[in-house]
Amino acid sequence: MGTNMGFPQRASKKGHNMKYGFGVDLGGTTVKIAYFEESGNMLSKWEIPTDLQEQGKNILPDIAASLLGYIKENNIPMDSLLGIGIGVPGPVSPEGIVNRCENLRWGVFNVNETLSRLTGLPVRAGNDATVAALGECWKGGGQGCKNMIMATLGTGVGGGIVVNGQILLGAHGAAGEIGHIVLNREETEPCNCGKYGCAEQYCSATGVVRVTKRTLAATDAPSALRQIENLTCKDVFDCAKAGDAVAKQALEKVYAYLGEFLGNLCDTTNPERIVLGGGVSKAGDVLLKGIRPYFDKFVFHANRDVEFTLASLGNDAGAYGAFKLILDAVG
Ligand code: ZN
Hints:
single chain, about 325 residues, alpha/beta, 5-stranded mixed β-sheet, 10 helices, globular, binds zinc ion
């Protein structure tokens, strides 16, 4: 179990004073688990499948068994462990109460208490997107920032807002649901959330494809995009790079939406840095350069001095952030 990253666990010179802990990124298909030393060095990581049977009742017991197995296998003293941080795909209150995680088929209960009872360790749970933002702020694209906004432009749009080094949770743990900020009051198609005109409808990978299809439908101009059967976000960026006028036009619309979206967010929390992650961010610098002029146009002048970067931890952001959650709580 686990990939050992070559760290001589208890033979370190700092030895007995060193504290350790776990970061868990709970997804609808797999659970990513990582073991860290308190500095944030990831010592090992592994995955277990997410068992969705019977309303997901086996998920936390499976995680507990995996963690306890790892602890035993590696002779890790319980008193060297700070605890477990866990990112969950749904709203989590500051006390650790999940409120209906559709992906996991969970109802309402306290994750902190349940996983703590199963493992004998302190537990802190948070929403997966906000936890990933905390990870990027600590060890990734937002490293060194005390104020940061992370926008994950994936199938949907998720986010996390860090203010004064702390992840913003809000009264019910739903702060940072930036994907459902309305950008277009005239929208006629509904978002997945049931509202109309959400950022997610234009700025996610699916949104890029949607905007492109609309752009194509509104023009007779020739475009290589018309020959592509299952158009993807990457196709749009590739065609734009190759000079396709319609692809470029579609991306300009996306950049304008993103510029307005991120500008409004910066006017709310005045971050030092914006970190972009998710599938759309794979376009790289071309995306950052595309957004900038629109951002500069829409943001209030005093909030214009913001650095744009790409997320750098990839799939590990959630585990890093989850560990940081427990580290901040008990470390
Ligand atoms: Zn929405």
